[in-house]
Amino acid sequence: MTKPDDRPQESLAALLGGRRGAVDATIPPVAFGLGWWLAGQSVVVGVLVAVVAGLVVAGWRLGRGGKPRSVLVGLAGVCVAGMIALYTGRAEDFFLLQLLSNAASALAWAISIVIRWPLLGVVVGGVLGQRTRWRRDPDLSRAYGRASWVWVCQYLLRVAVFLPLWLWGFTAALTVARVALTWPLIAACLAASWWVLRRNLPASHPGIRHPVVPVQASAAVRE
Questions:
Q1: What is the number of domains present in the chain?
Q2: Chunked in runs of 10, what are the mean pLDDT values of the chain (223 residues)?
Q3: Which domain range does residue 29 map to?
Q4: Is the N or the C terminus of the chain less surrounded, counting Cβ atoms within 10 Å?
Q5: Distance separating alpha carbons of residues 204 and 57, to the nearest angstrom
Q6: How many CB atoms lie within 10 A of CB 48?
Q7: Taking a C-beta distance cutoff of 8 angstroms, is the pair 92, 174 a contact?
Q8: pTM of the entire structure?
Q9: Judging by beta carbons within 10 Å of its beta carbon (0-12, 13-18, 19+), is residue 2 exposed, middle or buried?
Q10: In Å, how far from its chain's centre is CA 100?
Q11: Which of 145, 190, 159, 134 is nearest to 16 (CA)?
């Protein structure tokens, strides 16, 4: 029998689109920062460069078989961020949407744990085609809840870094932080949450792909 620790980590990596999606997400902000700086701190130029970079990334991913929905959502995020910066005239406001989305994500993940619908379980269960079967496994549900706190901390860390930089108007620092706290942080979060998940499953548990559903629950499902 395969041990729980040997269950594929790629399921967790797929949770947020993996390395490719995280790297793609950093290209438009970097383009904005470079365009803004090279054009003498012009918000308009920075936004134009970011949108062009977003279009190039979207076209590249669609051409390579990327999911249209996720690609278009990413492009829409760039456009909204650009419109906010153009409306306020403040370069740092290009990163306001990212700041708000991380604050909202931290709150949503925390609430999901409290109400016993941890989002890590919801997403991984969806990826594995389990629907809500994982919730009928007390050990797996509890492990997902504890591992989800790692993701809450990830979002809170971004807020803690982005908020003062945004308040002080440090656009260049926001650009650097946006890169540093995307793929490297996601990679660390995936590793940490996978470790927490495994540590909280009994040694006899078959792993995340095989929820242990009580006999009574199985019978109820068949009926």
A1: 1
A2: 44 57 85 97 97 93 78 91 98 97 98 96 87 93 97 97 98 96 89 91 90 66 46
A3: 4-222
A4: C
A5: 44
A6: 17
A7: yes
A8: 0.86
A9: exposed
A10: 14
A11: 190
